[in-house]
Design a protein that fits this description.
This protein has six helices and no strands. With about 130 residues, the protein is mainly alpha-helical. It folds into two domains: about 60 residues, no CATH class; about 35 residues, no CATH class. It is elongated.
Length: about 130
């Protein structure tokens, strides 16, 4: 698994990285599987050299944040109201920006997401 060192890196940087880093990691891989692979890697080394403290910390943070695998799937929904061309790119840009705020915990409700989208668009509406 490509990310098996990431729990240890996050643990080492835990005072500098936010919860969004764990949420972003869950977009790339299944957190519980990552925990098991990383822990197995630690336990498979010489005894006492790599204690799985970081993996247990990672597992606990995932539980506290209620993080689940959030791999993004492309939607193939069509329809007449679907934006096209440049409008689609702009909608995608706005959705990604709002989603990043959500991963960081700055946007937690639908209302906050809508307000952030309006802010990005430069549109004010109470």
């Amino acid at each position: 698994m490509a990310h098996h060192l990431k729990p240890g890196q996050l643990y080492d940087e835990r005072d500098r990285v936010g919860d969004g880093a764990i949420r972003r990691l869950a977009r790339r891989c299944e957190p519980d599987l990552l925990y098991r692979v990383a822990k197995a890697d630690c336990l498979g080394r010489r005894p006492g050299v790599f204690e799985p403290v970081a993996m247990e910390w990672f597992r606990e943070r995932v539980r506290q944040l209620d993080v689940r695998c959030a791999r993004r799937r492309r939607s193939s929904r069509g329809g007449t109201s679907s934006p096209s061309g440049g409008a689609r790119a702009e909608v995608g840009r706005i959705l990604r920006a709002v989603y990043e705020k959500q991963l960081d915990g700055a946007v937690t409700t639908l209302e906050e997401a809508q307000a952030e989208a309006r802010r990005i668009l430069g549109v004010y509406r109470p």
